[in-house]
């Protein structure tokens, strides 16, 4: 048996139908060298055989007793369109042959049979059959290809090409379906946005190909964590979204986020190395956090933002008090604007001690906000807000002017060379008129430039490093001192220390704390101090709280310190008092400790 798609590479098959036995035998005899021949004596038998087998060629007599050859031809033609039919016409007239051709026969042979003629006709028929099957195969393939392409295009419209997860469009559609369903049979629906922490870094350091690979792997891991009926989708470049229907309690969603985090915990192999990936989750719930897909998604986004802001690798639920917080922030912003005009800002001063001379050599000016209803606020409560809103520019100017004016009054205490240190945030330092504004303040207040010190963090200096170096150089030319604040918390790259035009290095509090408890920290501090000294930098320690700290830091070669041990930040008059009455207090502490 041959299938109709097979081109007869071996032996083609022929079915021969004739009611005259001698003719059948003659044909079989003639053709069997090249063909597999089957012969039957009537159209009825032929139809039976054709039910089971497929033939490449059928040779049939036209005039037969029961069913005529023409009728058989119709059957073959409709059931086996690739079978090529040759009719044998017994009548002396050409009419039946013409009927046969009209009925779909490929050729006809007149009786009495001419052997050469038969062979040639069958060969032609076979060639025609091969062509027919080839054409059919091609058409079928084409059809299949078109079908495939069409489904692929439809797929692309709703699925992400990289991960093969549903895309944002399909996801939003699924939410709206889930919400419609949930409205009818009251139930909770959870929407969770998942964003990979620091994914940009993977892309930047390992390349996009590894980044893509990472996303595919993340998608696979997430898929495995879901129940049937839930959806995980690719929502944005490094964001995935999950739709969890039939939630009984909100804790389920918190649990799920932990399961997902766990699934991401084992390392990813990217670019030949192990990479650890964490994620942040923002969760919102129907109907509490919204009743339409837009609101639910927006609120999940707000919750995600909170999770990221908390440092990532955690989850946050959307809560209406997140809105309340936004409102509160707005109120705080409005009142911070007024604070400067209303003179609600206050500067506190904290002494800085020189370990060699035992003198108070300077003071750091630290801003506070005497809020009319919230009380005295520390900088952590409003400096970030001031930076975000740009109010830091006004605030910074006020701080510098006030601090410089205050420092002028210290001359009366016989401490002419005492410095005031002012913190400068990145945004202030980056403004184009920073230098001019500082010079103007120095001129207006009459403070000697060498009595002013600016405290900047590494991050501030490294933003636009070339411009920063140039600006710092200009500032130092005036005699103003520069201190690198919070050293040990930023990049802490020792190699660029040499490049930076600075005078003082302020070791961060955490470093100082560690030096008395952790030998590694102590060794690090020693190394930092040595290096700093080789660049002729002063090293002073922040957060010296205990005598142990002090003893240690002096031992390690620190030049000076600042901290609760010597004095907490205090308002201007209290600080002046301290200078007035307790000029020797630093001396006492230092002597008592050595
Ligand atoms: P900072 O410049 O590193 O200031 C040192 C911080 O450590 C101050 O906190 C100070 O009160 C605190 N501190 C000093 N000694 C000790 C100690 O022995 N133990 C402990 N636990 N803490 C100590 P404060 O005043 O809350 O200031 C926090 C930060 O706010 C400052 O860090 C500075 O970055 C920023 N800041 C303060 N005033 C200003 C300002 O006028 N302008 C700008 N841009 N930032 C400011
Ligand atoms: Mg500081
Ligand atoms: Mg500091």
Describe the structure.
- With 594 residues, the chain is α/β, with parallel strands linked by helices.
- It folds into 3 domains: 13-140, 3-Layer(aba) Sandwich (Rossmann fold); 162-320, Alpha-Beta Plaits, CATH 3.30.70.270; 330-589, EAL domain (TIM Barrel, Alpha-Beta Barrel).
- The chain has an 8-stranded mixed β-barrel, surrounded by 6 helices. A 5-stranded parallel beta sheet has the order 2-1-3-4-5, sandwiched between helices.
- Strand 7 (231-236) and strand 8 form a beta hairpin.
- The longest helix is centred in the first third of the chain and has 44 residues, at 115-158.
- The N and C termini lie far apart (108 Å).
- Mean pLDDT is 88; it is low at 1-6.
- The structure holds ligand C2E and magnesium ion (2 copies).
- Residues 485-486, 506, 542 line the site of one magnesium ion (MG).
Write the layout of secondary structure elements.
Elements: E1 13-17, H1 21-31, E2 36-40, H2 43-52, E3 57-61, H3 69-79, E4 84-89, H4 95-102, E5 107-110, H5 115-158, H6 168-184, E6 188-196, H7 199-206, H8 208-225, E7 231-236, E8 239-247, H9 251-265, E9 268-270, E10 273-275, E11 279-286, H10 293-309, E12 315-317, H11 320-341, E13 345-354, E14 360-371, E15 375-377, H12 383-389, H13 392-409, E16 419-423, H14 426-430, H15 434-445, E17 452-457, H16 458-462, H17 465-477, E18 481-487, E19 504-507, H18 509-517, H19 519-534, E20 538-541, H20 547-555, E21 560-561, E22 570-571, H21 572-581, H22 585-593
Parallel strand pairs: 1-2, 1-3, 3-4, 4-5, 11-12, 14-16, 16-17, 17-18, 18-19, 19-20, 20-21
Antiparallel strand pairs: 6-8, 6-11, 7-8, 9-10, 13-14, 13-21, 13-22, 14-15
Helix pairs in contact: 2-3, 7-8, 8-9, 13-15, 18-19, 18-20
Bound molecules: ligand C2E and magnesium ion (2 copies).
């Amino acid at each position: 048996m041959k299938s109709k798609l097979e081109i007869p590479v071996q032996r083609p098959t022929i079915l021969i139908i004739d009611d005259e036995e001698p003719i059948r035998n003659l044909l079989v005899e003639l053709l069997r060298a090249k063909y597999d021949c089957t012969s039957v004596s009537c159209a009825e038998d032929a139809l039976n055989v054709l039910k089971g087998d497929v033939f490449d060629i059928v040779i049939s007599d036209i005039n037969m007793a029961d069913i005529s050859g023409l009728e058989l031809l119709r059957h073959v033609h409709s059931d086996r369109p690739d079978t090529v039919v040759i009719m044998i016409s017994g009548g002396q007239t050409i009419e039946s042959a013409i009927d046969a051709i009209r009925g779909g026969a490929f050729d006809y042979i007149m009786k009495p049979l001419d052997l050469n003629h038969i062979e040639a006709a069958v060969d032609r028929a076979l060639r025609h059959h091969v062509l027919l099957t080839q054409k059919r195969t091609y058409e079928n393939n084409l059809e299949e290809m078109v079908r495939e392409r069409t489904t692929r295009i439809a797929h692309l419209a709703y699925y992400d090409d990289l991960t093969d997860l549903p895309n944002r469009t399909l996801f939003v559609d699924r939410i709206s379906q889930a919400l419609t369903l949930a409205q009818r049979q009251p139930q909770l629906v959870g929407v969770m946005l998942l964003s990979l922490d620091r994914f940009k870094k993977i892309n930047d350091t390992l390349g996009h190909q590894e980044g893509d690979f990472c996303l595919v792997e993340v998608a696979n891991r997430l898929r495995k964590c879901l129940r049937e009926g839930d959806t995980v989708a690719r929502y944005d470049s490094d964001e995935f979204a999950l739709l969890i229907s039939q939630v009984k309690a909100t804790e389920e969603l918190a649990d799920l986020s932990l399961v997902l985090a766990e699934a991401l915990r084992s390392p990813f192999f990217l670019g030949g190395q192990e990479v650890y990936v964490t994620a942040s989750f923002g969760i919102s719930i129907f109907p509490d956090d919204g009743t339409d897909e837009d609101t639910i998604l927006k609120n999940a986004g707000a919750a995600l933002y909170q999770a990221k802001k908390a440092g990532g690798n955690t989850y946050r639920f959307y809560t209406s008090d997140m809105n309340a917080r936004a409102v509160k922030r707005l109120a705080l912003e409005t009142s911070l604007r007024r604070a400067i005009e209303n003179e609600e800002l206050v500067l506190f001063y904290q002494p800085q001690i020189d370990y060699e001379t035992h003198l108070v050599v300077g003071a750091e000016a630290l801003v506070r906000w005497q809020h009319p209803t919230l009380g005295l606020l520390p900088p952590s409560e409003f400096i970030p807000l001031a930076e975000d809103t740009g109010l830091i520019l006004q605030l910074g100017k006020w701080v510098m002017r006030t601090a410089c004016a205050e420092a002028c009054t210290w001359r009366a205490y016989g401490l002419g060379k005492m410095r005031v240190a002012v913190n400068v945030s990145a945004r202030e330092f980056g403004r184009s008129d920073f230098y001019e504004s500082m010079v103007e303040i120095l001129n207006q207040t009459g403070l000697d430039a060498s009595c002013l010190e600016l405290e900047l963090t590494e991050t501030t200096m490294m933003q636009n490093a070339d411009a920063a170096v140039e600006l710092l150089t200009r500032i130092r030319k005036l005699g103003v001192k520069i201190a690198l604040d919070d050293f040990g918390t930023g990049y802490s790259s020792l190699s660029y220390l040499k490049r930076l035009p600075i005078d003082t290095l302020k070791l961060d509090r955490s470093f100082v704390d560690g030096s008395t408890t952790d030998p590694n920290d102590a060794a690090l501090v020693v190394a930092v101090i040595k290096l700093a000294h080789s660049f002729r930098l002063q090293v002073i320690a922040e957060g010296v709280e205990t005598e142990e700290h002090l003893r240690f830091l002096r031992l390690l070669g620190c030049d000076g310190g600042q901290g609760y041990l010597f004095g907490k930040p205090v308002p201007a008059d209290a600080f002046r008092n301290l200078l007035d009455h307790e000029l020797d207090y630093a001396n006492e502490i230092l002597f008592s400790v050595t």
